Amino acid sequence: MQGVGNDSDGILVLGATNIPWVLDAAIRRRFEKRIYIPLPESHARAAMFKIHLGNTPHMLTEQDFRTLGDKSEGFSGADISIVVRDALMQPVRKVQTATHFKRVRGPSRSDPNATVDDLLTPCSPGDPGAIEMSWMDVDGDKLLEPVVNMSDMLKSMASSKPTVNDEDLKKVEKFCEDFGMEG
């Protein structure tokens, strides 16, 4: 940048903003390149859902990820991160609000190679083998938490809205026209 030191070789100054129209002309002039990075497309959003889930156990298929990508039109990467974090809490909410649990087979806590038949997982009152109890009645070593599934993701998405609106996108498009952003 002009006026900062004598030697600018090997220096890259990178700035980012979601509201470029509020930048003053002197700042805009000092950035040679202005690159517009649009909201992610469907396939990129699908990949973001997968990335944010990470190694968390889930029951989502590749088709589910594509569906999430399609249903999240207008969502930013940050919006998707919020949806996934909320979806990761859905199994915890199921455990906390459950009035009935049933015995299931699952991995032993003490020996990961062994399977046990006495774990408890939340269920509906009408499930065969449902036992009326709250999560407070379940021994922590015997609780088998539900894994994240597509309905958890859809429920979280239904309660989240994109943070970028059409008016903001129009302002960015106008800025691109006026100041020749690339990308």
From TrEMBL:
<dbReference type="GO" id="GO:0016887">
    <property type="term" value="F:ATP hydrolysis activity"/>
</dbReference>
<dbReference type="InterPro" id="IPR003960">
    <property type="entry name" value="ATPase_AAA_CS"/>
</dbReference>
<feature type="domain" description="ATPase AAA-type core">
    <location>
        <begin position="1"/>
        <end position="39"/>
    </location>
</feature>
<dbReference type="GO" id="GO:0007033">
    <property type="term" value="P:vacuole organization"/>
</dbReference>
<dbReference type="Pfam" id="PF09336">
    <property type="entry name" value="Vps4_C"/>
</dbReference>
<feature type="domain" description="AAA ATPase AAA+ lid">
    <location>
        <begin position="64"/>
        <end position="99"/>
    </location>
</feature>
<dbReference type="InterPro" id="IPR041569">
    <property type="entry name" value="AAA_lid_3"/>
</dbReference>
<keyword id="KW-0547">Nucleotide-binding</keyword>
<comment type="similarity">
    <text>Belongs to the AAA ATPase family.</text>
</comment>
<protein>
    <submittedName>
        <fullName>Vacuolar protein sorting-associated protein 4B</fullName>
    </submittedName>
</protein>
<dbReference type="GO" id="GO:0005524">
    <property type="term" value="F:ATP binding"/>
</dbReference>
<dbReference type="InterPro" id="IPR027417">
    <property type="entry name" value="P-loop_NTPase"/>
</dbReference>
<dbReference type="Pfam" id="PF17862">
    <property type="entry name" value="AAA_lid_3"/>
</dbReference>
<dbReference type="InterPro" id="IPR003959">
    <property type="entry name" value="ATPase_AAA_core"/>
</dbReference>
<dbReference type="GO" id="GO:0016197">
    <property type="term" value="P:endosomal transport"/>
</dbReference>
<dbReference type="Pfam" id="PF00004">
    <property type="entry name" value="AAA"/>
</dbReference>
<feature type="domain" description="Spastin/Vps4 C-terminal">
    <location>
        <begin position="120"/>
        <end position="180"/>
    </location>
</feature>
<dbReference type="InterPro" id="IPR050304">
    <property type="entry name" value="MT-severing_AAA_ATPase"/>
</dbReference>
<dbReference type="InterPro" id="IPR015415">
    <property type="entry name" value="Spast_Vps4_C"/>
</dbReference>
<keyword id="KW-0067">ATP-binding</keyword>
